[in-house]
Amino acid sequence: MFDVGSFRTRTCGTIGRRSFLRLAGSVPLALGLPGARIAQAEVKRPRAKSVIFVFLWGAPSHLDTCDPKPDAPTEYRGPFRAIATKTPGLFFSELLPRIASRSDRFSIIRTHATTEPGHPDAGTAALTGFKEVPAPVQPNFGSIVAKHRGNRGSLPPFVSLARGVVMDGGRRIEGYGGGTLSPAFDPMLVGCSGEGEIDIPALRLLEGLNPLRIRDRAQLVDQIDAVPRSLERAGFDSWNRNFHSAYDLLLTPQARQAFDLTRESEQTRGRYGYTVFGQSSLLARRLVEAEVPYIQLNYSRHVEALNPGFEFGWDTHLYNFELLQDQHCPILDRAYSALLDDLYDRGLIDQTLVVMMGEFGRTPRISANAARDHWPPCYFSIWSGGGVQPGRVIGTSDRLGEYPRGTPIPPLMVGTTIAELAGLDTQARAEMNVLSGGQVIDGLL
Questions:
Q1: Is the domain of 184 the same as that of 303?
Q2: Worst-scoring range by mean pLDDT, 133-137, 181-185, 309-313, 353-357?
Q3: Is residue 35 one of the residues assigned to a domain?
Q4: How far is it, in rounded angstroms, from Cα 63 to Cα 373?
Q5: For the segment 375-429, what is each residue's pLDDT rounded down to a tens digit?
Q6: Which of 198, 224, 199, 200 lies closest to 210 in space, CA to CA?
Q7: What distance in Å separates the CA atoms of residue 432 and residue 439, rounded to the nearest whole number?
């Protein structure tokens, strides 16, 4: 079922037409905008038709997950045992046994570094490749792919799976959307509960609009025309240009079905786990099947590790080891391994790039609070499918996990590599004026 504001509707048959409709200023979505003309242009054939960017918002500890240091002093290595993977010489934490057993299906980078020490700034760098300051904010990797591909179907080209823009306290990541490419290329924001109920904030009903009228196009237009002009200040000037594509989204059965997790078997849903991240991961796979070009799969909308009402983020300044053991890693291990298996089993992995990472690492030396704090100089990412050679280990950190050995890999290289695999070569990036100065991570390809 969809949860659209306070109005619930089933997603099968004609009943599902009743919901979704609130196109506020946050939703140009790139639905039917002038940039969609790009879809008619000849583009380089991408190795990855779809990208899933798994964003571990809040920053997981690399030592306690994918870069353990079993020979380091106790104040660094922590309480968790290192276990072997299928890749010779590669060890993971015992908290991620399922992912470790699938290392032949992905490659790992252990030498990322960023210059930003705080969540919002580092989050923008992680999602755009550039700092927030100086302005203007550069576009999200997903916005770049969205503009390049255009709007070719009933679904938008960029979807972010979270109940709103990802946040740190009261501050959002400025690099969440279109940036210099314009808000037309912001993502569609889609929330998913642990039970698989879907909420699309951008398509909530306008105040005073009768849901039944959505089935009558002429009446719907009349109703919208009657909305007080004062609403224009909230962004409704974009309504006319977005209306037709949004209406198509409402009425296209394939578009509605992509968001209906009840079409999956209980066995499949159970493999992913009945958690926000688990069911969101399953939704990401369904969006790949629906040929959405870019899906940002967020592990938690908020960074806070102790945030009532939300699935906990990875900002474990307190209870790092307890939370990783009891909450974060079991959820991640189950959902991510299920996602990989599903993409392989359904023959989707070759056309789907999956990138998983946070915005930085966490202090190798355990803090006075018996936890770990922010650590920008060293962290990891995991890459699978879409033209990536699996089973590789790129780079290594020093014996304490504090710094990369050799040249660190910055966020800009991450975005450039994603863009290259998604079909944006050097010329396409230059013509769009994005990812300037970026280089591809050659060891992955």
A1: yes
A2: 309-313
A3: no
A4: 12
A5: 999 999 999 999 999 999 999 999 999 999 999 999 999 999 999 999 999 999 9
A6: 224
A7: 16
Contact 368, 317 (CB under 8 A): no
Give the tens place of pLDDT for each residue, 350-371.
Answer: 999 999 999 999 999 999 999 9
CA distances from residue 409 to 298, 377, 439 in whole angstroms, order as listed: 22, 10, 10
Q: In CATH, what number is assigned to the domain containing residue 160?
A: 3.40.720.10
The pLDDT tens digits for 215-260 are 555 555 555 555 544 444 444 444 443 344 445 566 677 787 899 9
In the predicted model, is pLDDT for residue 37 greater than 60?
A: no
Does residue 111 sit within a domain? yes
Q: State the angle between helix axes of 411-421 and 119-128 in degrees (0 to 180), rounded to the nearest 10.
A: 30
- Rounded distance, CA 100 to CA 390, Å? 13
Helix (H, G, I), strand (E, B) or coil at 115: coil
| Residue 39 belongs to a domain | no
Distance from C-alpha of 32 to C-alpha of 182, rounded to nearest angstrom:
14
Within 274-410, residue ranges assigned H as helices are 276-289, 320-323, 329-345
Domain with 215, as residue range(s), is: 1-30+207-253
The verdict on residue 38 lying in a domain is no
- Whose tokens are 């790949």? That residue is 288
